[in-house]
């Protein structure tokens, strides 16, 4: 019996997250979630289990509501980097989840790096 797309996605997500936990070194996790309509990112402290900062294309302040493209993802990446600096976070590790590192997911990471967040 073949695995469904959802099962394969969950396997990929857990494989990525477990590898990142091994090299964590006390940093926070920059987690990305991409849907068909939106992209959202969170800075998560796994030790305390809290979200420290978040950004999404659903926020009217970013000016990308209703857009789901690489430019919108880059704005979200820049916003999360600015919010991380405001929260006193200099570096994080990038958790792409089960998503491939290209397109919108890569745009978020590149924009966050350009805005000064060490990933």
Walkthrough of the structure:
The protein has about 120 residues and is α+β, with helices and mostly antiparallel strands. It has a single domain, classed as 2-Layer Sandwich (Nucleotidyltransferase, domain 5). The chain is built from three helices and four strands, in the order H-E-E-E-H-E-H. It has a four-stranded mixed beta sheet. The longest helix is centred in the N-terminal third of the chain and has 18 residues. The radius of gyration is 14 Å and the shape is globular. The termini are far apart. The mean pLDDT is about 90.
Q: Which runs of at least 5 residues are low in confidence (pLDDT < 50)?
A: none
Strand content: 15-25%
Shape: globular
What share of the residues lie within helices? Answer: 25-40%
**Which sheet architecture does the biggest sheet show?**
4 strands, mixed
Instruction: Classify the secondary structure makeup into a structural class.
Output: alpha+beta
CATH third-tier fold name: Nucleotidyltransferase, domain 5
The CATH architecture is 2-Layer Sandwich
Q: Alpha-carbon distance between the termini?
A: 39 Å
Global Rg: 14 Å
Assembly state (oligomeric): single chain
Number of domains: 1
Overall pLDDT score:
91
Q: Tell me the strand order in the biggest sheet.
A: 3-2-1-4
Helical run tally: 3
Question: Which class in CATH terms?
Answer: Alpha Beta
SSE run: HEEEHEH
Write down how many β-strands occur, each being a DSSP E stretch of 2 or more residues.
4
Protein name: Large ribosomal subunit protein uL18
Function: This is one of the proteins that bind and probably mediate the attachment of the 5S RNA into the large ribosomal subunit, where it forms part of the central protuberance.
Family: Belongs to the universal ribosomal protein uL18 family.
GO molecular function, one term: 5S rRNA binding
């Amino acid at each position: 019996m073949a695995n469904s797309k959802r099962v394969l996605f969950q396997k990929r997500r857990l494989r990525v997250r477990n590898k990142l936990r091994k090299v964590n070194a006390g940093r926070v996790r920059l987690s990305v979630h991409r849907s068909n309509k939106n992209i959202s990112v969170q800075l998560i402290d796994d030790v305390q289990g809290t979200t420290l900062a978040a950004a999404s294309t659903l926020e009217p302040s970013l000016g990308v509501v209703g857009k789901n493209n690489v430019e919108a993802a880059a704005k979200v990446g820049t916003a999360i980097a600015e919010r991380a600096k405001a929260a006193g976070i200099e570096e994080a590790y990038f958790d792409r989840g089960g998503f491939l590192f290209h397109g919108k997911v890569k745009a978020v990471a590149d924009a966050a790096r350009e805005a000064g967040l060490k990933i």
